[in-house]
Write a structure and sequence with these properties.
The complex is a heterodimer of chains A (280) and B (205). Chain A has 280 residues and is mostly helical. Chain A folds into three domains: 142 residues; 64 residues, no CATH class; 49 residues. A two-stranded antiparallel sheet of chain A has the order 1-2. Chain A is extended. The model of chain A has no long low-confidence stretch (mean pLDDT 88). Chain B has a single domain, classed as Four Helix Bundle (Hemerythrin (Met), subunit A) (Up-down Bundle), CATH 1.20.120. Chain B is 75% helix and 0% strand. The chains are: A mainly alpha (280), B mainly alpha (205). Chains A and B meet through helix 8 of A and helix 5 of B.
């Protein structure tokens, strides 16, 4: 909640500076300065990192069966938010008074020392926040009580299935009557999703190593291309070829080997449902 | 859902989308084609931006030969047509016919690829290497990428044909063949754009 709502001012600042950067005539003034650094960190922090942290707290009980500690969470957020603005807000000004980006140091006696100091302090505050998040993970794993399947009084379908989530997600496909299906049932129904099909055998796909090997091969290919400009022991083309063989070979194997998955029988489904149903 | 398909009266009329797995393959493949479209669009954009940057190397109008490219275009268009025939045969459960048309598609694709290799070798003889000029780089990157796609399609379809040489049409392999033919059409469409943007514009304007 805090993360989501603080996204707005952060992202707006990043957006406004983005518009500034998009104006070619004035961009000559702050091109390649810390102004740009400040801009894209407002975008990436506001748009991605705050979302990631918020989502971590939100879905943590569904993923791991217990909530993260709320007090520590709030502390993480405030430290992170304050640290972030300390770090990057002054960089707007630093950029405007002429500090270039992509250099690790700056000229003395140009009036940049104080703001760079502020920036550094902010970075440490942010680090403390992230360390606190890690502490929170460990602390909650030991202390937090077991979460129910719907700890936040949620609106959407993931909160309608059990925690821990059975491998088939839903024993019966739920009948969806609105965009916020669980919320709709809570207001208009009895708060539980109604099934849209009878209990039956569930067809499941088998796990597969191929997606991993396909991307592993691409990693080799990419690494080989980087090696073209290096003095390497083996020819980069060998690395590229190996990567290509791994990737396309995995695709060929995936195509040649028929994999029909497996079925969870109706009896097993009922057994699992009874078991997870009793512990929340 | 595969188990719910009634096979007692033979294959359904659309074996490629009779199962949930087949339908998912379609969806996934269209997403993949959307990504491919974007990738080719960037290469086209690069080519359009750089095609006048010939430096001291040969220009497009100096080296392109319309008859050769016209033959290539016709070969590739025909191969697309034969893959449509193959899909018709598949829907009528005529496995042998489908295989035959698919092999014709592969043969035509191989002929196209042969012409393209010949074409590239010719251009190198004219002094248009990959790094000769911005035009050369963007041309080879775009057309070569398309050629690589043709090669991939040939290997893919051949692999399917060899893998399923005796199996008949099943609900498992029908989507695979259908999706490979979709891919082949996509390559064809990209080539139409290359023909227009690279060759016709290169010679005529």
């Amino acid at each position: 909640m805090l993360c989501a709502s603080s996204f707005v001012p952060t992202f707006v600042l990043g957006g406004v500076t983005g518009v500034m950067l998009a104006m070619a005539p004035v961009d000559h003034l702050y091109h390649d300065t810390y102004f740009v650094v400040a801009h894209f960190h407002y975008i990436i922090l506001g748009g991605i990192v705050l979302g990631l942290i918020g989502a971590t707290f939100y879905w943590y009980p569904k993923m791991f069966g217990h909530k993260l500690n709320e007090g520590l969470g709030k502390l993480t957020f405030w430290l992170f938010y304050i640290g972030f603005h300390l770090t990057f807000f002054v960089q707007h000004i630093l950029g405007l008074i002429g500090m270039p980006r992509r250099v690790y140091t700056y000229l003395e006696d140009q009036g940049m020392e104080a703001m760079n100091m502020v920036s550094t302090i902010g970075a440490f505050v942010m680090s403390v926040a992230i360390i606190l998040l890690v502490v929170n993970v460990v602390y909650s794993a030991m202390k937090s009580p077991k979460a129910s399947s719907d700890p936040w009084d949620g609106r959407t379908l993931e909160w309608a299935t059990h925690t821990p989530v059975p491998e088939y997600n839903f024993a019966q496909t739920p009948q969806v009557r609105s965009l916020d299906p669980l919320f709709y049932e809570k207001i208009h129904g009895d708060g539980t999703m109604k099934p849209a099909e009878p209990v039956a055998d569930i067809h499941m796909p088998n796990g597969s190593i191929y997606p991993f090997t396909i991307s592993l091969g691409l990693f080799f290919v990419g690494f080989g291309f980087i090696m073209l400009n290096m003095e390497a022991i083996i020819s980069p083309w060998i690395v590229i070829a190996i990567g290509g063989i791994i990737t396309f070979g995995s695709m060929a194997l995936h195509s040649v080997k028929e994999d029909h998955g497996y079925h969870i029988t109706k009896e097993t489904v009922e057994e699992i449902e009874k078991e997870v149903g009793t512990n929340g | 859902m595969a188990e719910t398909t009634d096979l007692s009266k033979g294959l359904p009329s659309h074996p490629e989308r009779a199962t949930l797995e087949g339908k998912n393959k379609f969806l996934g493949f269209w997403v993949f084609l959307a990504g491919e479209t974007t990738m080719f669009a960037t290469f086209f954009g690069t080519y359009l931006g750089l095609r006048n940057g010939t430096g001291s190397g040969p220009e497009a109008a100096d080296i392109f030969s319309l008859p050769l490219v016209f033959i290539m275009t016709m070969i590739l268009l025909t191969s697309s047509l034969t893959s449509v025939f193959a899909m018709f045969a598949m829907k009528k459960n005529q496995f042998k016919k489908m295989k035959a048309w698919m092999w014709v598609t592969v043969a035509l694709g191989a002929a196209f690829l042969g012409f393209e290799i010949y074409e590239f070798v010719e251009y190198v003889h004219y002094g248009l290497g990959f790094t000769t000029s911005a035009f050369a780089s963007s041309f080879y990157a775009l057309v070569g990428l398309h050629g690589a796609h043709v090669l991939f399609g040939l290997l893919w379809i051949s692999l399917l044909l060899i893998r399923y040489r005796n199996s008949g049409i099943t609900l498992t392999n029908a989507p695979k063949f259908y999706v490979s033919s979709l891919y082949w059409h996509f390559i064809d469409v990209v080539w139409i754009f290359i023909f227009t943007v690279v060759y016709l514009m290169g010679i005529g304007g």
